[in-house]
Amino acid sequence: MIDHTHDARHRAWEESANDDSDFPLQNLPLCRFSRPGKPERTGVAIGDKIVDLSILVDLAMLRGAAG
């Protein structure tokens, strides 16, 4: 273990990220995604879900984010 953030006991709120995932909570990939008819957005994959980072920026939920 490098530090406390790499502790395998830490669990994600998204259950699909906890069980045999290629990207566990300690290794979340950034991604670009889009929905039909919508522009591409930036997100973070967590299990089989994507968190839309643009929404978090708009809500000022990211440190240093400007909305």
**Lateral arrangement of strands in the main beta sheet:** 1-2-3
**End-to-end CA span:** 36 Å
Q: How does the helix and strand content classify structurally?
A: mainly beta
Strand content: 15-25%
Number-wise, the strands total 3
Uncertain residue ranges: none
Helix content: under 10%
User: Major β-sheet, in short?
Assistant: 3 strands, antiparallel
Give a quick precis of the structure:
The protein is mostly beta strands and 67 residues long. 9% of the residues lie in helices and 21% in strands.
Report what the structure shows.
This protein is mostly beta strands and 67 residues long. It is 9% helix and 21% strand. It has one helix and three strands, in the order βββα. A three-stranded antiparallel beta sheet has the order 1-2-3. The longest helix is centred in the C-terminal third of the chain and has 6 residues.
Task: Map the helices and strands.
Layout: E1 30-33, E2 41-46, E3 49-52, H1 53-58
Keywords summarizing the entry:
mainly beta, 21% strand, single chain, globular, 3 strands, 9% helix, 67 residues
